[in-house]
Each structure stands twice: as C-alpha cells, then as structure tokens.
Design a protein that fits this description.
Oligomer: heterodimer
Number of helices of chain A: 5
Strand order of the largest sheet of chain B: 2-1-3-4-5-6
Largest sheet of chain A: 10 strands, mixed
Distance between the termini of chain A: 15 Å
Largest interface: A-B, 23 and 23 residues
Radius of gyration of chain B: 24 Å
CATH class of one domain in chain B: Alpha Beta
Helix content of chain B: 25-40%
Structural class of chain B: alpha/beta
CATH topology of one domain in chain B: Rossmann fold
CATH architecture of one domain in chain B: 3-Layer(aba) Sandwich
Number of helices of chain B: 22
C-alpha cells in the first residue's frame, strides 16, 4: 500500500534538519508498528521520502511524505502514527495512492509561502510588490558549484500579494518542475532582509493539466 | 518572571549551530510540571549532548527518579562554545533541557564522574548555571551538588566543589537520599548533609579532613566527628532483575555517539585484569536473567523505534547464557528488522558460532583487546588470554566474513620493555597471516590502537606511576617504526591528555585549587582535541606550586596512606597489594568464578543486612 501523508512542522521541530526529520519519521513508523517496505540490496533502507526539503528554522503547515507499506492499513494505523510523533509534528491527513504513481517529490511544482507582517509594514509593501510584479525580468545571482550563475525568477513567481486583512505577505513560487525560487530571494528583492525566521510554508502543489492541486486533492490514476 | 523556555527557543536557539542538542522535547523525554513536584533533580553530564546521551547510567537514573510521580529529573549537558558564549554574554543561565529551568532552581544537581578530563567542565557548568563553585560558600537556596560514578572512588580532587558523593550503585543509594530530602526540606544544608552521611554509600567531604604531619606529608583522611564512619562503604545492588532499568530511551534527533539501544547484561567482571578499575568497583558479578532481558529488549524496541540494540557489559561473552540469548533475541529482533550488536567481547569468548550469529544481523567492526604484546606482560596485567586465543578468534572472524579487525593495546604498563612492544608487532603479523589461513585473499585491514596506561585508584596498579612524557613518545616511536612493515594502521592516544588524566586520577584535595584555576583559565571539554589546552593546565598546576608532569609519574609506596583510603570499594587494600606483588612476579590469578581469591567482596555482601550475598560471591569464603 502506497500512501501520501500531509503533516505540519511547527516550532520546536523547525530546528530539525532534513536528515533529522527523516530519522524522526523512520522511528515513528517503527514505534507505531507500521509495516514499511524496505529497499532491496546490501544497505536496506525504509521506503520513505519527502516531497520537498525545508530549510532549518522554517515552519510549515503543508509538508508531505511518500511511504510504501507492505500491507493494507486502516485509519487506526495512522492514528497510532499520529500519536507517537514528537511535539511539533502533526499528522494532518493521509491518502492511499495508486502503486505506479511517480514519487511525490517529482510531481511537486510549486510552494505557497507566508510571511507574517505588521499592519503598516504590509501597507508600505504594496508599492514594492506591484513594481516587482510588473518587471519583465528579475535576475538573481546564485552561487553553485560551478561559480555564480544568474537566473530570471520572474516567470517562476506565480503570485505575490501583501494581504492587509491578514497582515502577511503571500507568495506562490515555483518549486520543482520549471525551476525553483527560494522565498528569501523574493524577500531580498522586496528589501525585507533577515526575516527568514518568520517564514512559513503553507502548501505544496502538483500540476494536473493547466491547474495546480493540493496533493491530497489531485486525481491520480 | 522570565519565561526561559520562550526566550531560549525563540531568541537563542535560532542562533546556535546544532539546536537539536538543546531542544529537549525528544520522544520519551519527561517534562513534568515542576511546581507540582516535591523534588527536582538536574542530572548533569559534563560533556556535550552527543556524549552524555550515550551514557547508560544517566538513562537509569532518569527513569529511577521520573518513575516516582512527585520527583522530577531533567537533563543538562555542557553547551558547545557557540551557545556557551551566548549564555555568558547575555547572562542567560544554563538550563535543563526538559522545561528550560535554570540549574539553580533545582533541589539537587547531580554530576556523573566518568573520566578525569571532564572535571574542569563540571566547574564551567556550575559557573554557567550561576551556582557557587565552592560547596562551603553555597547559600541555603542553592541546590545540593552530588557526584557519582567511577570518579567518586577518588573524588578528592573535586572535594571542594561537591556537597556529597555517592559510592557504588545509585539505584541503591539515590532513592534513600531523595526520600530523605523530600521529607526534610526544612533542615539547613549542614543538617541535611550530616543526616545524609548516615546513608550507606554517601560521602560528605566537608565532614572529613586530610591530615598532614609537620613536614606536610599526607597521613590520611579522617572524619571530623567520632560518630562518622572511618571508611565509607560502597553501595551494592544485589538483584539486577529487580533494579530499575529504563523501559523507554529518550530518542535524540541528531545522531549521537552510541545511537542505539543498550541492554546491560550484567554488572561486574570476574576476570581480574589488574589495570582495570571497573573490574574492581563493580564487583561482584551480577547478571540479569535472559527472561528479563528479552522483556526489556522488546519494550525498548517498541517504545523507541530504534533499529539497533547493543548487548553491553564489561565482557559480554562472559554472560552465562550468551549463546542462547544471542540466538533467541537475535531471531526475535530480526523479525522486526532490529540489528543486534555485541560490542564488548573478550577474544577468548569469541567463538565461530557467536561470530556467525552476530553477523546475521549486522557486520559491525570487530575489536579485540589483547592489551599487551607478550604473554609475560599479559600475565603481569592478568589479562588471561593467549596468543592462540587471539589467532583462533581472528581466524574465526575472517572465516565468518570479516575483513577488518581492530586490536587494542596499552603501552607503559608496569614492567614493560621494548621486547613487549616488539611483541605487538609480532602479534599483528600473525593476525595478518591468519587471514590467509582462513582462506581469504588479499590483506585484512588491521588497525592497531594504542593508548597509554594510566594507573587508577582502587586497582592493583594504584601504586604505580605513569611512565612519563619522553618515555611515552619513545615507545610510541618504537612501535610506529616496527609496525610500518606490517601494513597495519597505527592509531595512538595523545601524550598530554594522558599526563593530565594520570595527574588527576590519583591526586588528593590539593588538586581542587588546580581544577578551579584551570576552569578560570578557560579549560573545558578536555576530552576534545579542539578544546584541550595543555598549556593552561600546566599553568594551573604551577600557579598552585605543583608540577603536572611530576604528579603524573608519581609512585606511591605500598605503606603510603592514599587519598582514597577512606573510601571502600569492597575489595581490600591487602588484596590489591597481593595482586600487585603477583603482577611484578608475572604470576596470574584465576578468574574468580573458578576459585575465590578472597578480594573482600563476599565480606561486604555478607555484612549487608546480615544476609549472604548472591552472584559469583555466593559461596565464597575467606580463608
């Protein structure tokens, strides 16, 4: 049985690295006595993968796991799993998916981000947001193994809005598929430095046809 | 009131390198409402989280205290330099992990004394916790500071900083101590300590003073009052099955040094290696039953989610039902995908059958400890294994599929000559040859790890000295040269940490001022190369009119009063002396399961509660 699990990573779990978080899930699955499938070969490892890595220090309400089990599981199994998670990790939802579905990691194409702001901060940001959106290109420099390279992130910003009612900045950014925009890159363009500690990822999306869907809602066959 | 937790999690943790070390809400961590607890204990390990979390004793005490509804135990470790600097600069006190409570708010602060190189770290933790360093200047509101573990058998170098020490198995002493403190909150510190000194295994250093003659020679440590015992007897848990063992291990987020479950098969050892302190201070041999171990193993796996379990004790192969246990437990655990490992195997108990069984689950590295290169020197230290044992163990291991082996030796053992060093090389050659004889092609990976022998209190070698800096370097060099042709990898321990360890291990109260000065100079985490500063330590000794190198090589005469004579391990000084003399004559003593050697333990056990002791000492009688 193959399953996608949606979970939240709140403080204090935000301090866990990708590797730490993987270990936490592997152990939680064992504590809940769920029959996870193992890879073949000399160095066997449980078939658990994340949809997308999340930087240390960032919280999220929309993280996903892709797990292969050896047996069919019922709701009670996932209740057990939810109960054995450490404080700060919350199992939000799960769904069974068809066996041949590609890895969730390869399907994710966008991420929704939020940055809480003060009301007046939000108002002052409107101008900068519309200027940024009206730019025809937004080159940013990235340091890679082969030196510095310039990427135009404008086509990868799917939406950007300063929401005065909720006092937050909301961004829908490419994440996989066509490319990746790091939320801090956008914040830097908006001259909002050093606020990464308040960043929150709220959802990941997969594409189906011309539309984005939440992984829990997308039709699979 | 400051909300330490909010402040720490939100303002401090985002700025440190490895925040998961300090998070403290791991699975199975116990965070109680401290305002409802009658007794709050901070369990401190004077090293980094990764080291301290690997220690079984801490887990046992954590369970023992937290199992009691109205007692709370929380953990605290030494912060790494980045967090230490933040705490210091921002005057934020060192806090426990569970509820982020400052150390000063606890009733009792317990340090485990595992190795001498952690002593300066204890003082740093007291300082960061805002607790007075000197026991005598602590206020009524400050926690009582207690130490336990092997270091408590010669705690004199730390006597000024501790209110009391606990000798022996804390499972026995600690509940009595805590019950007393719970019921006597109204008493003053001095009154509490006087009463605690009546509990077996409790040593209150301020109630004992070292005496000196007019030339300043040490005469012994004596009690201040006539109604205090002249010697403090170590506490012994007789039935390990009935003793507390944690059923839930706190599961760390990051990886730690020993990142696996640990099951203690037995305590004590009957082999009688003459250099080994653990072999003396954990007597007699006490085993857990296979039935109990299997129940524990199952529970530990279920509650932690770990996929590896290590069977641990001083010499696991000596467990009386080891073959049966490994087979049965190994099969049960394999069903759940849990690997079984057996880290402490004596090579004479390593059989091809055991090799096969351990291999089934995971082929971890294999380490054997011949300790010395020649039969003569192995007889001196009473490591009763022969070259044949080693070669057959190695052959079995190679035949079972291992391709590498690690051999552990010591240099600087009493009576060692260059011939014994050559013996190490000769052994390594034979092990390499055994690889071919086992039908393997190519060359095995042989690692030769050589440490420096440091004499310890309460052992037959307690009178001997370290061989000294130049001689250590020379012998390391001899070994390096002669091992070169064998293709073995040579690993050795640093000289300077060994010198310091030796100087602290057998010293008296004169070292308190040295350790205080070293801490002042910034010494901490001395077990880590990147923190260890030999210059600062030398300075600390000199500032107190002492020379580190001289104290390290100091020998005691057999009739010298020793700084730990007033602390009894249960093994008599006359037994240790007899063993020392046998050692110098290169005569061995048998395993005491075969033949009671009259070490004194059976007397201690019989004296206790007027009943006879169990375990290996059951039938023992002194002649």
């Amino acid at each position: 049985m193959r399953v996608w699990i949606k979970f939240a990573k709140e403080s204090p779990m935000r301090f866990l690295s990708h590797l730490d978080l993987m270990r936490v899930w592997q152990r939680a699955v064992r504590r809940a006595e769920l029959p996870v499938a193992y890879s073949a070969g000399f160095n066997r490892h449980p078939k658990i993968s994340f949809a997308s890595a999340l930087a240390v220090g960032v919280t999220s309400a929309g993280e996903y796991l892709d797990i292969q089990f050896t047996k069919l599981l019922d709701e009670a199994a996932f209740v057990r799993l939810a109960e054995t998670l450490p404080q700060g990790l919350k199992l939000l939802d799960w769904r069974q998916i068809p066996e041949g579905t590609p890895a969730l990691m390869s399907l994710v194409c966008a991420a929704q981000w939020e940055l809480p702001l003060q009301a007046d901060e939000c108002r002052h940001l409107q101008q900068a947001v519309s200027e940024l959106l009206s730019a025809s290109s937004l080159p940013v420099e990235r340091e890679g193994k082969k030196g510095i390279k310039t990427v135009d992130i404008r086509p990868l910003i799917y939406s950007l809005a300063a929401d005065e009612k909720e006092s937050c900045l909301r961004m829908l950014l490419a994440s996989g598929g066509e490319g990746v925009v790091r939320p801090v890159e956008v914040l830097k363009l908006l001259c909002l430095p050093d606020v990464a500690g308040r960043l929150r990822r709220t959802e990941l999306y997969v594409a189906s046809g011309q539309c984005f869907f939440e992984p829990m809602a997308v039709l699979l066959n | 009131m400051v909300d330490y937790k909010l402040e720490f999690w939100d303002k401090i943790l985002p700025r440190v390198q490895k925040p998961t070390r300090y998070l403290g809400n791991e699975v199975n961590a116990v965070a109680k409402d401290l305002s409802r607890c009658l007794l709050k204990v901070a369990l401190a390990f004077p090293d980094l989280y990764e080291v301290g979390m690997s220690h079984l004793g801490l887990k046992i005490l954590y369970s023992l205290i937290n199992d009691h509804e109205q007692w709370a135990a929380e953990r605290v470790f030494m912060p790494d330099s980045d967090l230490e600097a933040i705490l210091q600069n921002e005057a934020f006190p060192l806090c426990s992990l569970e509820t982020v409570t400052p150390l000063a708010a606890f009733d009792l602060l317990g340090f485990t004394l595992q190795y001498e190189l952690s002593y300066a770290t204890i003082l740093q933790m007291l300082r960061l916790g805002g607790i007075s360093l000197l026991a005598l200047s602590r206020g009524e509101e400050e926690p009582l500071v207690v130490g336990g573990g092997p270091g408590a058998f010669n705690p004199e170098p730390l006597a000024d900083f501790f209110d009391f020490f606990m000798l022996g198995d804390a499972e026995e002493t600690l509940p009595q101590v805590l019950s007393f403190l719970e019921q006597n909150r109204h008493l003053s510190r001095a009154e509490k300590l006087r009463s605690l000194s009546r509990i077996a295994g409790v040593y209150v250093p301020s109630l004992y003073i070292p005496d000196f003659d007019q030339h300043g020679s040490f005469l012994g440590t004596t009690p201040l009052h006539a109604n205090l015992p002249r010697q403090i007897q170590r506490a012994v848990v007789e039935d390990l099955d009935a003793a507390v063992y944690p059923e839930k291990f706190v599961v760390p987020y990051g990886s730690i040094v020993h990142d696996r479950l640990v099951l203690e098969l037995f305590r004590g050892c009957t082999r009688g290696c003459r250099f080994c302190q653990a072999g003396i201070i954990y007597r007699p041999l006490r085993e857990r039953t296979p039935a109990k171990l299997k129940v524990l193993a199952k529970e530990l796996v279920r509650t932690s989610g770990y996929d590896e379990l290590a069977l641990s004790s001083l010499s696991s192969g000596d467990y009386s039902a080891i073959g049966q246990l490994v087979t049965e437990l190994g099969m049960e655990l394999a069903k759940e995908g849990v690997a079984l490992s057996l880290p402490s195997l004596r090579l004479d108990s390593f059989s091809s059958q055991l090799a096969e069984q351990v291999k089934q689950v995971r082929k971890s590295g294999l380490t054997f400890a011949p300790e010395a290169g020649t039969q003569r020197l192995r007889d001196v230290i009473n490591k009763n294994i022969s070259e044949t044992d080693l070669i057959s163990a190695a052959t079995d291991a190679f035949a079972a599929g291992w391709t590498g082996i690690k051999l552990y030796f010591m240099i600087g053992l009493p009576t060692e000559t260059d011939e014994d060093l050559e013996g190490i090389t000769a052994l390594v050659r034979k092990v390499t040859l055994a690889y071919k004889q086992a039908g393997c092609r190519g060359k095995p990976r042989v690692t030769v790890s050589v440490s420096v022998f440091v004499p310890k209190a309460h052992t037959p070698f307690q009178w001997a000295g370290l061989i000294g800096r130049d001689e250590i370097l020379r012998r390391q060099n001899v070994l390096r040269q002669s091992l070169r042709a064998t293709g073995a990898q040579f690993k050795w321990h640093g000289v300077e940490p060994s010198l310091l360890e030796a100087a602290l291990a057998r010293g008296g109260r004169e070292l308190c001022a040295v350790i205080a000065r070293a801490a002042e100079l910034g010494c901490k985490l001395d077990g880590w190369d990147e923190h260890f500063s030999f210059e600062n330590w030398q300075q600390a000794f000199r500032d107190n009119g002492l020379e580190l190198a001289e104290l390290a090589v100091r020998q005691y005469a057999l009739d010298d009063p020793l700084p730990w004579d007033h602390l009894a391990s249960g093994v008599t000084k006359s037994f240790l002396q007899k063993e020392y003399e046998l050692a110098l004559a290169a005569k061995v003593s048998r395993d005491c399961r075969e033949n009671c050697l009259g070490c004194g333990m059976s007397l201690l056990l019989e004296g206790k509660n007027g009943k006879e002791g169990k375990g290996a000492c059951h039938d023992a009688r002194l002649d």
